[in-house]
Specification:
Peroxisomal Thiolase, Chain A, domain 1; binds oxa(dethia)-CoA; 13 strands; alpha/beta; 2 domains
C-alpha cells in the first residue's frame, strides 16, 4: 500500500511584522537580518488566534483540495511546539473545530522537524490500513515563544500553519521514504527551558525569560548544514536516486544561508529549491507544508513531481522524506 498526499493547504495570520518594524523596537537593522538570514517579514497571530485556529484554516483547505469531508478523516496529527494548552492536545481542539467527529487526534513534538516526523507517523497508519484518511498538520504561534528583547532570536520566527491529507495512493505515487534522526545530547542548542515540568512557571521563569526560545545560533547553523546534507544523501541512496531525479527540494525554512549551503553541497540548482522564508521567517513545524502549498498553488510543483523534504530543529531532530506527488 503506497500512501499519497491527497490534498494540501496553508494559512498565515494577516498581521505582517517587517524588519523595519523590528528596527523600531530593538537594536537591529533590515540589512543585518536580510544578509544573515534572508528574512524580510513574518506573519504574527492576532491576540485571539491560537495554534488550533491556524491549523484549522490550513486543514480545511487541504480537505477541500482533496474533496474529502471532515467526517471522513480518521486521524488528526498536529506537530507543534506551541500547543494551545498542556492538555488536551491541540489536535483534539482542531478535531472539534473542524467537525472531524470520527477522527482520533494527538499532538507530536519534534520542533522544526515536526512536519516530517508527523508525516512519517501518518504514513504508517495508512500503509497498515489502520486508517484511510490522516490529516498531518504543522502549526505554530512562535511569536508567543519569542523573547522580543533578544535580537539573536526574535528576528527569526513567524506564525503559520500547513496541512496535508494522506490517503491510499494511485499506483507509483506517494511517500517513497522517510528517514528520521535525533541527537538528544544536543537538546540545549535550541530549547524553551522553563515554564513546563522541569522548571515550572515562577517569577524567576518570567524575569529570566526561561519560557522563551533560547538558541545557540552559530553552533546550530553548522550542525544543520552537515546533518541536512547527510540525511538528504541517505534518502537518495535508499531510493536509488541521484539529486538530478529530484524535481523540487522543499527544506525547512530557517536561514537562507543554511539552505544555499545545503543546496550547493547536494549540487541542487537553486531554482529547484522552494524558498519562502523571506515572507514568513522560520515557522518551525509549519514551514515545510507552508512552502510546499505555495509551490503547488503557483504551479511550480505538479502531480508526478519528485520532492525531497528536508527538516532540522530542536531536539536535535532532523529528517528527510522523498515523495512522488
Ligand atoms: O529552525 C531550527 C534551526 N535553527 C537554525 O537553524 C538557526 C541556525 N542559526 C542561524 O540561523 C544563525 O546562527 C543566526 C541567524 C541565528 C545568527 O547568525 P550568525 O551569523 O550566526 O550571527 P552570530 O550569532 O554569530 O552574531 C554575529 C553578530 C554578533 O555581534 P558581535 O558579537 O559579533 O559583535 C551578534 O550580537 O551579530 C549580532 N547580532 C545582530 N545584529 C543585528 C545578532 N543578532 C542580531 C540582529 N541584528 N538581529
Amino acid at each position: 500500500m503506497q500512501v499519497q498526499i491527497l490534498g494540501n493547504g496553508a494559512y498565515a495570520p494577516k498581521t505582517i511584522l517587517t524588519n523595519h518594524d523590528l528596527e523600531k523596537k530593538i537594536d537591529t537593522s533590515n540589512e543585518w537580518i536580510v544578509a544573515r538570514t534572508g528574512i524580510r517579514e513574518r506573519h504574527i497571530a492576532a491576540k485571539d488566534e491560537a495554534t488550533s485556529d491556524l491549523a484549522v484554516h490550513a486543514a480545511r483547505k487541504a480537505l477541500e483540495q482533496a474533496g474529502v469531508a471532515p467526517m471522513d478523516v480518521d486521524l488528526v496529527i498536529v506537530a507543534t511546539s506551541m500547543p494551545d494548552m498542556f492538555f488536551p492536545s491541540t489536535a483534539c481542539i482542531v478535531q472539534e473545530k473542524l467537525g472531524a467527529k470520527n477522527a482520533a487526534a494527538f499532538d507530536l513534538s519534534a520542533a522544526c522537524s515536526g512536519f516530517i516526523y508527523a508525516l512519517s507517523v501518518g504514513e504508517q497508519y495508512v500503509r497498515s490500513e489502520t486508517y484511510r484518511h490522516v490529516l498531518v498538520i504543522g502549526a505554530e504561534v512562535m511569536s508567543r515563544l519569542t523573547n522580543w528583547q533578544d535580537r539573536g532570536t526574535c528576528v527569526l520566527f513567524g506564525d503559520g500553519a500547513g496541512a496535508v491529507l494522506l490517503g491510499p495512493a494511485n499506483e507509483g505515487r506517494g511517500i517513497l521514504s522517510v528517514h528520521l534522526h535525533t541527537d538528544g545530547a544536543l537538546w540545549d542548542l535550541i530549547c524553551v527551558p522553563g515554564g513546563a515540568g522541569a522548571i515550572p512557571p515562577s517569577e524567576k521563569v518570567l524575569v529570566e525569560c526561561l519560557n522563551t526560545i533560547h538558541m545557540k545560533g552559530s553552533e546550530t547553523f553548522k550542525i544543520a548544514v552537515r546533518n541536512l546534507e547527510n540525511v538528504a544523501l541517505e534518502a537518495l541512496h535508499a531510493n536509488d536516486m541521484s539529486i538530478s531525479d529530484i524535481d523540487w527540494l522543499v527544506p525547512h525554512q530557517a536561514n537562507i544561508r543554511i539552505l544555499k549551503a545545503v543546496a550547493a553541497r547536494l549540487k541542487m540548482p537553486k531554482e529547484k529549491m522552494v524558498v519562502n522564508l523571506d515572507r514568513y521567517g522560520n515557522t518551525s513545524a509549519a514551514s515545510i507544508p507552508l512552502a510546499f502549498d505555495e509551490a503547488v498553488n503557483d504551479g511550480r510543483i505538479k502531480r508526478g513531481d519528485s520532492i525531497l523534504f528536508l527538516a532540522f530543529g530542536g531536539g536535535l531532530t532532523w529528517g528527510a522524506a522523498v515523495v512522488n506527488y
